[in-house]
Amino acid sequence: MLPSFYQKYLEKYLKPAQLITLKMLVWLLQSQKQVRIERLAATLPLPILENSRRRHLQRFLSLGSLNILALWFPLIREIIYHRIKVGTQIIIAIDRTQWSYNNVLMVSAIHQKRAFPVFWTLLDKKGACNLAEQKQVLRPVIRLLNKYQIVVVGDREFHSIELAQWLHRNKVSFILRQKCDTTFRSKRQISQPLSSIPLQPGIRLFYQNISLTQKKGFNRFNLAAYWKRKYKGNQEKEPWYLLTNLSDLKSATQIYKQRYGIEAMFKDCKTGGYNLEDSKTSPDRLIKLILLIALAMTSAWLHGQRTQLQGQHEYVCRLTETGRTRRRHSKFWIGLYGESWLAAFQSCQLWVEEMLSLIANKKLFYQRGLRAINLIEQPL
To answer: Where does the Transposase IS4-like domain lie (predicted)?
Structure first.
């Protein structure tokens, strides 16, 4: 179920029939965990021929009103404004994911180790993106979140000094991971590759006012070099070389660690959630399918957050064992599978009532579970 503030806003831009179709599709994404048109058409609860349902979905996904800037930006801004205080720091991750012939460049906001999709585009090529494409996805996000202290983080694909210079000129902080064969030069020193920095696991170094290019017109920035120590038998294969305009080592490394929230989000979009990689639809419809996934994903996260605050998440997921340092399940997972549990309960309600009549000694526990269901299914 979509949060009420989603519905109020969407009513302004979509016709009633279009809004109903959108709500059905979001519900199907949560229940089927699939974005293939054939699968969605097969389960779309409209009393028309299957071929008609498929055409209905194709027409819906061709609507010009399903626009990221018009529909999604106001909603994601509302989510961010209610969770991150205006004027404080916000971490923005830029990343690219590719499967089959699809190549998606995405910018996301990181909050509580999770990434929320903000803006995305489909590249009409395979492989890495260029500076113009990076600016294309970053500009609208920088304008949208201009009331925050933005820090852009990117992996080695986004290592270019040109991107760093552009962000710096736009008064945006950045942390961009560099390739180990990149050369740098401190003042009055000769150029040397980053791999020549003497690093061992657990060691951190910070270089100020270094240059990555001999071209004129580029600012000098700082370099944070860090190799994570071995932890629970896991050892990072390579150190981090982070180009940044932040002034200290600790901030640069701590903020860059949060970039991995976007990896979790891509997993949610693909094998861990909605199986986006199974989609064979056209590029234009794929962009709109990702919009539907963004609506479904954030809705699941919001429901999962409330379920945790209510203390009812134990009815949805396994308890975290003593000694376990990481949560077993995320808020997104709790929201997603909480919806599945509710749907299963509603489909089998008569059987559940029959079960209750047969096991009087367990009735108290079932009543507590029914109360949990009532709390979880309340609209946001």
So the answer is: 134-297
- What would the two tokens of residue 103 be? 């190549």
Strands 173-177 and 240-244: antiparallel
- Please, where are the H alpha helices in 208-322? 249-257, 261-269, 283-310
Per DSSP, the residues of 76-117 read HHHHHHHHS-TTSEEEEEEEEEEETTEEEEEEEEEETTEEEE
Structural domains of the chain, ranges and CATH numbers in brackets: 68-266 (3.90.350.10), 310-376 (no CATH)
Judge contact between 58 and 69, C-beta under 8 A. no
User: Is residue 177 within 8 Å of residue 163, measured between CB atoms?
Assistant: no
DSSP 8-state secondary structure symbol assigned to residue 329: S
Integer angstrom CA distances of residue 242 from 205, 223, 239, 256, 262: 11, 6, 10, 8, 18
Question: Of all residues in the chain, what percent are helix, strand and coil, respectively (each to 5)?
Answer: 50, 20, 35
Q: What's the Rg (C-alpha) of the chain?
A: 24
Alpha-carbon distances, residue 33 vs 24, 30, 37, 296, 380 (angstroms): 13, 6, 12, 10, 21
Taking the C-alpha atoms of residue 178 and residue 34, their distance in angstroms, rounded to an integer, is: 36
Q: Which residues of 137-156 are buried (b: 16+ CB within 10 A; e: fewer)?
A: bbeebbebbeebebbbbbbe
Tokens of 354: 């029959």
Nearest to 242 by CA among 252, 251, 250: 252
Structure tokens at 274: 């909605």
Query: pLDDT tens across 312-366, in order?
Result: 888 888 776 666 666 677 788 888 888 888 888 888 989 988 888 888 888 888 8
Nearest to 171 by CA among 207, 193, 190, 145: 145
Which letter does DSSP use for residue 234 in this model? B
Whether pTM exceeds 0.85: yes
First to last CA, the chain: 9
Element (H, E) at 58: helix 50-60
* CA distance linking residue 325 with residue 204, whole number of Å: 24
C-alpha 314/C-alpha 160 separation (Å) is: 46
Amino acid at 318: R
- Give residue for tokens 């519900």: 27
Higher pLDDT, 129 or 217: 129
